[in-house]
Amino acid sequence: MRSQVPSPQTIVKGVMQIQKKVRAQQEWTNRYGKILPVISTNFQGRKIVGAGNKLYQDTDQHPWKYIPDFLYDYVPGIFGSDWGIAELARPENEWHPVVKWRVEALRYLQRQSRLPDNTYDVKPNGYMGAYLAFAFNLFAIECNSRFDDDLLARLRNKQQFQGARHEVFVEATCLRAGFAIEHENERDGTRRHAEFTARHKATGQLLSIEAKSKHREGVLGQPGVPKPHEKLSLRFGKLLNDAIAKNPPHPLVVFVDTNLPYRSAERILGRDPLDANKPTRIMRELIERERKEHGGVDRYAMLVFTNHPHHYALPDELDPQRHTLSVMPLAMATPVIHTSALDELRHAVELYGNVPDEFPPQQ
User: Is the pTM of this model over 0.85?
Assistant: First the structure.
C-alpha cells in the first residue's frame, strides 16, 4: 500500500492557514456580527461582488477598490436606474433622503484632499454616515435573508422611507445577532402583525420584532418645516402602546427610533447625571408609566431605543454621536427561555454603523 505522509512543514503551514481563517472570521464577527463576509473576486480587470443570488460589477468610470466604493453604486442598483433618474430630475429640496445622502456624501468627498494613490481617507460627515450605514444594512439583508419586495417599494416611497429604513436597521441587527428572519403573512387580516418573527439559530428562541420610528415635520422625507430643537416632542408612549397592542405570539422586542438631534437625544437616552448606572429621569418615568398602564406587568421582552442623528448634521459636520438604550423588564408577561438570545441582540445593536473598508482577500 502506498501513501504520502505530509511533511511536518506542510502540516504546520496547513494549521497556520486554518488558524488565520478562524481569526479572520472572529474579527469579522466581533466587528460586523454574524452576517456573511463580503464575497468578491477580480475577473478580466473587473471587480465582481456577490449578494444573495445576484452579481454586481464595477465600471471603468467607477472602479471598486474599497467596499464603500461598491456601496455608493449598490443602492442605485437596488432602487433602479429609472427611479434614480426621476428623483434627480426633481428640485434638490424635493429629493428622496437616500438621493440627498448619496449626493452630499460624494460632494463631501470631493472637498477633501486625495492621498497619493488617488483615494480618500476621511472621517464621515452625517450624510456619508447615513448613506453607508443604510447601504451596508441593505446589503446584509440581501446576502443573509429573503429580500422583501414590499419593503423595497416602501423604501422608494419618500413618505414611507423613514419607517422602512428603521425596519432595515432592525432586520440587519437581528441578522447580526444570529437570528433567522421569518416574515409574517400580512394578507392575513384576522389579526395585527409584528414586523417579523426572529428565530435565534443557536437556541431556537422565537421573538416577535416590532419597529417604531418617531416622525417629525420636515425630517427624513416628511412634509412640513422642521421644528426648533427645543420644541421637539420627547414622548414615545403612543409608539410603544401601538406595538404592544398587536399582542404578538412570541415575546416582544420593540425597537424605537427616537429621531432626535444629538443634544435632545442625550436628554432622554443619556445617563442620570447622579447615577451613571441609571437611565435618565424622563426614560424611567416612561417605563414606569407603561408598566402601570398594563397592570404592573411589562408586556415586552426588551425595549431598544436608538438615535442615529446623521441627518441633523450640517454638510461639513462630522457624523454625530449615536445613542442606544436597551431596557429589560422587571415583570415580564411572556418569559424568554433563552435569555442569551436577547444578550446577542443587545450587543448587535451596538454594531450599527460599522462598515468594512477592505474587501476580504481572495482565497
Answer: yes
